[in-house]
Write a sequence for this structure.
C-alpha cells in the first residue's frame, strides 16, 4: 500500500471553517493520511467546504444509532465531540476489522479516508446537548 | 438576511458536488412544496430532514391520520414484558415545531398525479412539487382461508400498531398452562422478516416465566426458511426446550383454513383444535394510498429507482419504507429511516440547491430471544443493476457468549432510543 506524507497547508486550514479541528486531527494522526485525494480535499478551502457537506451527508446514516445530541443510554456510545484523529483511527480500525463489532465493521467497510475525515470533522464540531 | 456560515458551506458544497445540475429551476420562486404522506419510520424522518436541510427553501407538510405514532418496532418487547406500552408511543409536536413542518392530521384519500395534488379525507387538496410516500403496509385479509378483517379481534395479527398489539398481549396472558398457541407466519415479502420469530420467543419467555411450562407455541410457516433461523432455532431449544415448534410447508403441507369461532387451524397434515390463541400474520402489500395511485403492481410493492428512491412510475414521487420494493433491504424501521435520508438528500438537492451525493444504504435488525439475549442481522447496500443490492452483510452466530448477547441487546435498546430521537426530536 502506498503512503503519502501530507504536505503542510496551514494557510488554507486557517481560512477554512473546519480548519482548527482538522489541523488537530492531522497532528494527532501525525504520520500520514492515505490517498492524495484526501490531502487535496483537506488543503483546498473550497473543497474543505465540500468536505463539510460530505460529512453532514454521511452523518445522516450515523444518527439512526448515535444520537446527534450526544445522549446515550449505553450499548451504543455517543460519538459527538471526539478528537478527530481518534474518530478516524477508530473507524479505520473497524474498516480493517481490527476492532470487534459487526455493525461498525460493515459501516466502515466502504468508507474512504476522506469520508472518515469528513465524518470526524462533522461530529467533532458537535457538542453534547444537556 | 446575512447568510450563515452553514449556508455558505452548503452553497459551496453544492457547486462542487452537484455543479452539473446547475441552479435548480425552482430557486427564486416561492417555496417549493413537499408533501409527506405517513408519519412513520420513513415519513417522519423524511419530513424532518427535508425541512432541516431545505434551509427554508422548501415548505414541508406531513399528512398523518393518527395523533400519535405507536411503533411496531419494539412492540414485541412490550409483548414480552420488557417495555411498557407508553414507551413505544411518540408524538409529533417536537419535530414539527423545531423544523417548521406543517402537520395535517387527516387521512390522505388519494393522489391526483396529473395535477400533482394530494386529496385529503375532507376533500381539500394539497398541491406538491414532490410527494414523499411512506404509508407502510396493508394486510391481505384474504390470504388465509377463513380469516378476515372481522376475525382480527378473535385471531389478531398484531402487525399494525395500537389495539392489535395490546390484543396479542391480552390473549397471551389468557393462555392456560398446557394450551396451544398457533402462529401463522407470513409469506415474503413482509414487514420485519425476523419479527414473527422474535414474537414467538417473547411468547415462550412469558409462558415459561409465569410457570406455564406445558403450553406450546406452534409456528406454521408458508416459507421453507426464515430470517436468522440458524440462530433462533438452537437458541429456542437451549432456552425454551421443546416449547416452540417451527413447521415448514414440507411438514404441515399447507395452511388450509382457520375457524375463528372454534379456534381451529387446519393444515394439510394436522388440525389444531381449541387453540388457546391463534396469531394470524397474513400476507402484506404496499399501503392503499400508494397502490391506488398506480405506483405498485396489484397486491405488491412500489418499484423505485435505487439511486433516488423515486417511483419508477412517477419522478415527482418518492416511495420509501415498507411500501417500496427496496431490493435486498428488508422492510424495517431502520431501513425506512435510512432510506428517508437519501430521499431528503435528493429532494433538497433538486429543490433547494443542496449537495448531491451517491446513495448508500444501511440496515440492522435486532431481535430479542430472551432476557438480555438478542441477535442481529444487517448489511450495507448500494444501487446496482437497477436495484438496491447488498455489498456487505453480517449476522449473529449460534453459540455466542452470554456477554455478546447481552451487548447485542444493549445495542438494540440504544438503537431504539436513537431512531426515535432521530424521528421525533
Ligand atoms: C412486530 C413487529 C416488530 C418489528 N420490529 C422491528 C425492529 O425491531 N426493527 C426494525 O427496524 N423494524 C421493526 N419492525 C418493522 C417496522 O415497524 C416497519 O418496517 C416500519 O414501521 C416501516 O416504516 P414505514 O414508514 O414504511 O411505515 P409505518 O412506520 O407503518 O408508518 C406509516 C404511517 O403512515 C400512516 N398512513 C398510512 N396511510 C396513510 C394515509 N392514507 N393518510 C395518512 N396517513 C397514512 C400510518 O398511520 C403510519 O403512521 C417491526 C414490525 C413489527 C410488526
Amino acid at each position: 500500500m502506498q503512503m503519502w506524507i501530507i504536505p503542510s497547508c496551514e494557510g488554507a486550514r486557517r481560512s477554512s471553517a473546519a480548519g482548527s479541528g482538522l489541523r488537530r486531527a492531522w497532528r494527532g494522526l501525525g504520520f500520514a493520511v492515505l490517498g492524495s485525494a484526501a490531502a487535496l480535499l483537506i488543503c483546498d478551502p473550497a473543497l474543505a467546504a465540500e468536505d463539510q457537506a460530505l460529512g453532514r451527508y454521511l452523518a445522516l446514516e450515523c444518527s439512526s444509532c448515535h444520537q446527534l445530541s450526544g445522549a446515550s443510554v449505553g450499548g451504543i456510545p455517543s460519538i459527538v465531540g471526539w478528537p478527530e484523529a481518534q474518530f478516524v483511527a477508530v473507524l479505520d480500525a473497524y474498516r480493517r476489522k481490527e476492532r470487534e463489532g459487526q455493525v461498525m465493521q460493515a459501516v466502515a467497510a466502504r468508507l474512504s479516508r476522506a469520508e472518515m475525515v469528513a465524518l470526524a470533522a462533522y461530529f467533532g464540531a458537535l457538542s453534547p446537548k444537556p | 438576511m446575512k447568510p450563515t456560515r452553514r449556508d455558505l458551506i452548503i452553497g459551496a458544497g453544492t457547486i462542487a458536488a452537484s455543479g452539473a445540475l446547475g441552479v435548480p429551476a425552482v430557486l427564486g420562486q416561492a417555496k417549493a412544496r413537499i408533501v409527506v404522506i405517513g408519519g412513520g419510520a420513513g415519513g417522519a424522518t423524511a419530513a424532518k430532514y427535508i425541512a432541516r436541510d431545505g434551509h427554508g427553501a422548501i415548505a414541508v407538510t406531513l399528512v398523518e391520520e393518527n395523533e400519535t405514532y405507536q411503533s411496531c418496532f419494539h412492540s414485541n418487547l412490550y409483548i414480552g414484558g420488557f417495555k411498557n406500552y407508553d414507551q413505544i408511543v411518540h408524538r409529533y409536536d417536537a419535530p414539527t415545531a423545531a423544523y417548521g413542518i406543517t402537520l395535517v392530521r387527516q387521512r390522505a384519500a388519494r393522489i391526483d398525479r396529473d395535477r400533482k395534488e394530494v386529496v385529503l379525507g375532507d376533500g381539500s387538496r394539497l398541491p406538491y412539487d414532490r410527494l414523499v410516500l411512506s404509508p407502510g403496509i396493508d394486510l391481505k385479509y384474504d390470504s388465509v382461508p377463513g380469516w378476515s378483517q372481522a376475525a382480527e379481534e378473535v385471531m389478531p395479527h398484531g402487525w399494525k400498531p395500537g389495539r392489535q398489539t395490546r390484543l396479542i398481549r391480552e390473549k397471551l396472558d389468557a393462555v392456560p398452562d398446557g394450551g396451544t398457541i398457533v402462529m401463522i407466519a407470513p409469506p415474503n415479502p413482509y414487514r420485519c422478516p425476523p419479527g414473527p420469530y422474535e414474537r414467538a420467543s417473547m411468547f415462550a419467555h412469558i409462558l415459561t416465566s409465569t410457570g406455564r411450562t406445558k403450553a406450546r407455541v406452534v409456528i406454521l410457516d408458508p416459507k421453507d426458511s426464515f430470517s436468522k433461523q440458524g440462530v433462533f432455532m438452537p437458541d429456542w431449544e437451549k432456552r425454551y426446550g421443546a416449547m416452540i415448534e417451527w413447521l415448514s410447508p414440507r411438514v404441515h403441507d399447507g395452511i388450509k383454513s382457520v375457524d375463528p369461532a372454534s379456534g381451529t387451524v387446519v393444515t394439510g397434515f394436522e388440525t389444531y383444535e381449541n387453540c388457546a390463541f391463534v396469531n394470524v400474520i397474513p400476507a402484506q402489500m404496499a399501503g392503499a394510498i400508494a397502490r391506488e395511485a398506480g405506483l405498485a403492481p396489484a397486491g405488491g410493492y412500489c418499484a423505485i429507482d435505487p439511486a433516488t428512491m423515486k417511483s419508477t412510475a412517477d419522478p415527482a414521487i418518492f416511495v420509501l419504507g415498507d411500501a417500496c420494493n427496496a431490493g435486498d433491504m428488508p422492510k424495517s424501521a431502520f431501513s425506512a429511516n435510512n432510506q428517508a435520508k437519501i430521499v431528503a438528500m435528493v429532494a433538497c438537492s433538486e429543490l433547494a440547491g443542496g449537495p448531491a451525493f451517491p446513495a448508500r444504504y444501511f440496515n440492522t435488525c435486532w431481535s430479542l430471544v430472551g432476557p438480555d439475549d438478542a441477535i442481529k442481522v444487517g448489511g450495507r447496500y448500494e444501487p446496482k443493476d437497477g436495484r438496491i443490492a447488498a455489498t456487505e452483510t453480517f449476522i449473529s452466530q449460534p453459540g455466542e457468549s452470554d456477554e455478546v448477547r447481552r451487548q447485542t441487546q444493549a445495542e438494540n435498546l440504544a438503537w431504539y432510543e436513537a431512531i426515535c430521537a432521530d424521528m421525533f426530536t
Remarks:
- Chain A has a mean pLDDT of 75.
- Chain A has one domain: 4-124.
- Chain A touches chain B at residues 17, 46-47, 49-50, 52-54, 56-57, 60-61, 63-69, 71-76, 102-103, 105-107, 109-110 (CB under 8 Å).
- Residues B 37-43, 63-66, 69, 72-73, 75-76, 107-108, 134-136, 159, 191-192, 195, 199, 287, 289, 321-323, 331-334, 336, 365-366 surround flavin-adenine dinucleotide (CB under 6 Å).
